[in-house]
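so my prof wants the structure for this chain in the tokens format not the other one, which i didnt know existed until like an hour ago. anyway here's the sequence
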Amino acid sequence: MDSLSLNTTPLAFIGFGEAAEAFAKGWGSSVACRTRAFDEKSGPAADLPRARAAASGVTLCGTRDDALQGAGAVFCLVTADRATRAAEEAAAALAPGALWLDGNSCSPGAKRRSAEVIEAAGGRYVDVAIMAPVYPKLHETPLLIAGPHAVAALELLEELGMRAKIAGPKVGEASATKMIRSVMIKGMEALTAECLLAARRAGIEDRILGSLSASNPEINWPKQAAYNLERMMVHGQRRAAEMREVAITLDELGLPNGLAGATADWQQRIGDLGLPAGEPSFAERSDAILARLIPQE
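here's what i got, hopefully its the right format
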């Protein structure tokens, strides 16, 4: 199975969350109708994957094996801490030569461990890094891919209308780019929370925002602060898992990872609150967070 044709290749998802739904919606019904998915959530938690599958036209299967049967390409989109286990659980049911497109936010070391599992089972592992939020671009969200099967993967992704670039021939090159970039992106979100929630609590946010604007006038600080808080409120738990992988990445490189660990803590803390983002206002979002973070006096 050296090359794959969109017209003849069944597709599968392992994990059917926001990213999987966005990709399937972007592909359209002609592709989604030939796509199966498996999500390990059960009970009431399974309602969301079911709703996402219904909205996108993808068939949600009751078992992993049913989803993988005959699939020539599989997008693995679970949580970072489940990525290697997902590869292990799927390996026995993977079709020979199938592409395993690992889009999870994992350290390069974790990606290499997953690659060993998939390659040993006769699959073709591809390191995939999703480099931007999947909304609003859906399947056109920028991707980096790496590994010895990146060229074959690129051909299929382009046929699906996706926007991918090859980062290199080694597994881990795409994920390293995303992990190291996240030190800055997710770290800035955590800095926003620590600095500006404190400013709001102290009643001096106007002074702090004014000072930040004077130092960096190219940034609309109230708007950026509101956006950063929204990212943490809605996606904090997932971003915390990613930042723990970032910390592992730094450790693999022999570097200190204290900032990554602290960023994971802030992301988890705000994500665990389960707050809706609400209106795009720094004041409203910060007040909602502070009301839950600090016991009522």
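also thought this was worth mentioning. The mean pLDDT is 95.
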